[in-house]
Amino acid sequence: MSRLVKVMLTSLVVLLIVTIVALVVVLNVTNAKNQSDEPSIDDMIEYSYESPEITTDLEDGSFVRVQFQIVTDGKDAKDEISKRDFQLKNILIKELATMTEEDFKSGLPELEDNLKEKINELMTEGTVVDVYTIDKILQ
């Protein structure tokens, strides 16, 4: 083989090895960031608050009973949300009073998002990470 072919092959192998190493490093760093961003299920349970069951009427006259699991980002936030229980109930009643039966059936994710936003506006110690509907009855 000529010297030029050997240099090209060596360069190609080195370039391939560098590319593989870079790919492995990037994938591991990205994976580590994704894992650290997501709280574990144990953290979610430890820092979550179960709202009281609320029964109220909707705009069209039908009644709803609903309960939420509110996941916070820490112990301080969980303690604060439990103290703000009356404000949580107030937000829920106001939100539900503008909904019809159809809105409630199809708009539960939007209700959860609105609840999360409005509670976060009140919070001073930490934030609400997520809101889950754990019980709902529509009459």
Question: Which CATH-level-2 architecture of the largest domain?
Answer: 2-Layer Sandwich
Helical fraction equals 55-70%
Mean pLDDT: 88
Rg of Cα set: 26 Å
- Poorly predicted regions are none
Broad structural category: alpha+beta
- Biggest sheet record: 4 strands, antiparallel
Dominant shape: elongated
CATH topology of the largest domain: Tetrahydropterin Synthase, Chain A
How many independent structural domains? 2
| Count of runs of 4 or more consecutive helical residues | 6
Walk me through this protein's architecture.
By secondary structure, the chain is an alpha+beta fold. The chain has two domains: 1-38; 41-138, Band 7 domain (Tetrahydropterin Synthase, Chain A, 2-Layer Sandwich), CATH 3.30.479. The chain has helices spanning 3-37, 41-46, 75-83, 85-97, 101-106, 108-122, and strands at 48-50, 54-57, 63-72, 128-138. Strands 1, 2, 3 and 4 form a four-stranded antiparallel β-sheet that branches. A hairpin with a 5-residue loop joins β2 and β3 (63-72). The N and C termini lie far apart (85 Å). The mean pLDDT is 88.
